[in-house]
From TrEMBL:
<feature type="domain" description="Ketoreductase">
    <location>
        <begin position="8"/>
        <end position="194"/>
    </location>
</feature>
<keyword id="KW-0560">Oxidoreductase</keyword>
<dbReference type="InterPro" id="IPR036291">
    <property type="entry name" value="NAD(P)-bd_dom_sf"/>
</dbReference>
<comment type="similarity">
    <text>Belongs to the short-chain dehydrogenases/reductases (SDR) family.</text>
</comment>
<dbReference type="Pfam" id="PF13561">
    <property type="entry name" value="adh_short_C2"/>
</dbReference>
<dbReference type="GO" id="GO:0008709">
    <property type="term" value="F:cholate 7-alpha-dehydrogenase (NAD+) activity"/>
</dbReference>
<dbReference type="InterPro" id="IPR002347">
    <property type="entry name" value="SDR_fam"/>
</dbReference>
<protein>
    <submittedName>
        <fullName>7-alpha-hydroxysteroid dehydrogenase</fullName>
        <ecNumber>1.1.1.159</ecNumber>
    </submittedName>
</protein>
<dbReference type="InterPro" id="IPR057326">
    <property type="entry name" value="KR_dom"/>
</dbReference>
Length: 267
């Protein structure tokens, strides 16, 4: 079975920075038509200009996906550019520190809107487009939706209450949407990851050596993932190689979420 996504059209949100950018770049390199989406228009222009100069089939779209009109405009923009939508990667995520005991802290509500509801609304709209563009009497797969989640969804981090809750909800959304869209031949999966060597993490590690030591100590594979290792998992789920995989949350964390903290402390 082929891992190819050549010729397919993908929308990747959160594509101006970090893991989202790595995923979008990898899809362009794999021969897909890719729409880079983010609120940071300057960064989008900077990142896509080089790819366009190399004749890469890329476009960029800036907007706030919490707004329903933005989602409508994004889908119209993508179809106008590439005629169809085959892959959606919901990679736009926000992390905020929460105070679980502060009843005036609205971070849970904000992160549910950003990390869950925008992904849900965009997935619903993209799925409708995928169904609409289906060829009559065809039994071929119609599309793949991939959500980026986190191992925080299954671990207790009180200071990341809003983020953890939004990721847990995103995982459940993934499973529910997978069942709902399976009869329409659209697959929905997620990739949950732990620490990835992003620019922000590099900055933290340069300032706090103890963070690196703590991460490595809790990770059986003994290292921090590269963004490409997350993008590889996403490409697998986007391709026909995963044609019988749906409703799954694939974990890319080097085994970190498997470890009992008491075991780590004892060693």
């Amino acid at each position: 079975m082929s891992f190819s996504i050549a010729g397919k059209t993908a929308i990747v949100t959160g594509a101006a920075h970090g893991v989202g950018l790595a995923i979008a770049r990898a899809m362009v390199e794999a021969g897909a038509n890719v729409v880079f989406v983010d609120r940071d228009e300057a960064a989008l222009e900077r990142e896509t200009s080089v790819l366009r100069e190399a004749d890469g089939p890329v476009r960029h779209f800036a907007g706030d996906l919490r707004e329903r009109l933005t989602i409508t405009n994004l889908l119209s923009f993508t179809v106008d550019a590439f005629d169809r939508i085959d892959i959606l990667v919901n990679a736009a995520r926000q992390v905020r520190v929460s105070d679980p005991l502060d009843h005036e802290d609205d971070s849970v509500e904000r992160l549910l809107d950003q990390n869950l509801m925008s992904a849900l609304r965009l997935s619903q709209a993209a799925a409708k487009r995928m169904i609409k563009q289906a060829e009559p009497d065809s039994t071929a797969p119609l599309g793949s939706i991939i959500n980026l989640s986190s191992i925080a969804a299954r671990l207790a981090h009180p200071e990341l209450l809003g983020y953890s809750v939004s990721c847990a909800a995103l995982d459940q959304m993934t499973r529910s949407m997978a069942v709902a869209l399976a009869p329409k031949r659209i697959r929905v999966n997620a990739v949950a990851f732990g620490s990835v060597m992003s620019a922000s993490l590099k900055q933290s590690l340069s300032e706090h050596d103890e963070i690196r030591e703590a991460i490595l100590h809790c990770t059986p594979l003994g290292r921090i993932a590269s963004a490409s290792e997350v993008s590889d998992a996403v490409q697998y789920l986007a391709s026909d190689a995963s044609a019988f995989v749906t409703g799954q949350v694939i974990t890319v964390d080097g085994g970190r979420s498997l470890i009992d903290p008491s075991h780590v402390a004892a060693h």
